[in-house]
Amino acid sequence: MSSLTLSKKLYKAFFITLLLVFALAYLGPLYVMLTTSFKGIEEIRNGNILALPNALNGSAWVKAWSSACTGGDCYGLAPYFWNSMRIVIPALLISTAVGALNGYVLSQWRFKGSNFLFGALLFGCFIPFQVILLPMAKLLAWLGLANTVTGLVLVHVIYGIAFTTLFFRNYYVGIPNELVRAARLDGAGFFAIFRHVFLPLSTPIIVVSVIWQFTQIWNDFLFGVVYSGPGTQPITVALNNLVNTTMGGKEYNVDMAAAVIAALPTLVVYIVAGKYFVRGLTAGAVKG
């Protein structure tokens, strides 16, 4: 075996080991959350945090879902979970649809000021959440949508359009112009081209937009705590209230089960569609 081949194998073994160490460090908290959620209180207090549970006990999951106290209410996370679903689904669909149309227009319609408009939308991707809290609160109050699910949907649509437009525009500039010219020769108009040429080719970038928006909206805490009210709070706000509510002894197993329940939808989305994320995100990186 040559020294060069041996050196390559050693480098490969080193980097694989390094990646495994990083993976274990990254997955460590999830392991602790899962194992703790299936333990009883006494086992948590007297046992090792890294040890597996002596017996699987799902009572903490049941309590976290249906009867844990989040502040003054003891209905568990269930109503807040469905609040988040009522916020995420319409906000995701609207922002993705508007972003797709915006991206198509900005990539194919070179009107005067289109570059400035795209730059302004791009600037919106870098505006911190805190900057828009007060003006958005005034807008929601003026529209009569303060402390409502509809108001939170509007907030996430407005904030997400900048990102979805960026994704779709960078993807659409990579679509061959020959397809557009062929569609025009067949008599297709501007929106017919969008419907019959661009949308069928948009599956990878739609997946990117769905994953991005779902994750951002579901995990949002700041907008949820500022713009929601009693009965409209998302699951992240409820999780914070549950963890900070103490009645008797601290139930770490319930807290861990609640944290996993709150994170489960985003984990499912990444597991199901994660392999398309990087592929779609980098599809428009070469051209445009």
- CATH homologous superfamily identity of the largest domain: MetI-like
Instruction: Show unreliable segments.
Output: none
**SSE run:** HHHHHHHHHHHHHH
Mean pLDDT: 85
Count of all domains: 2
Shape: flat
Quote the CATH topology of the largest domain: MetI-like fold
Distance separating the two termini: 47 Å
Strand tally: 0
Q: Structural class of the helices, strands and pairings? A: mainly alpha
Cα radius of gyration in angstroms: 24 Å
Report on this model:
The structure is a single chain. The radius of gyration is 24 Å and the shape is flat. It is built from 14 helices and no strands. It folds into two domains: 6-60, no CATH class; 78-283, MetI-like (MetI-like fold, Orthogonal Bundle). The mean pLDDT is 85. It is 71% helix and 0% strand. With 288 residues, it is mostly helical.
Secondary-structure map with pairings?
Blueprint: H1 3-37, H2 41-46, H3 59-66, H4 78-108, H5 114-124, H6 133-143, H7 149-172, H8 177-185, H9 190-198, H10 203-219, H11 222-227, H12 235-243, H13 252-273, H14 275-281
Structure described in brief:
By secondary structure, this protein is mainly alpha-helical.
List keywords for this structure.
288 residues; mainly alpha; MetI-like fold; 2 domains; 14 helices; 0% strand; flat
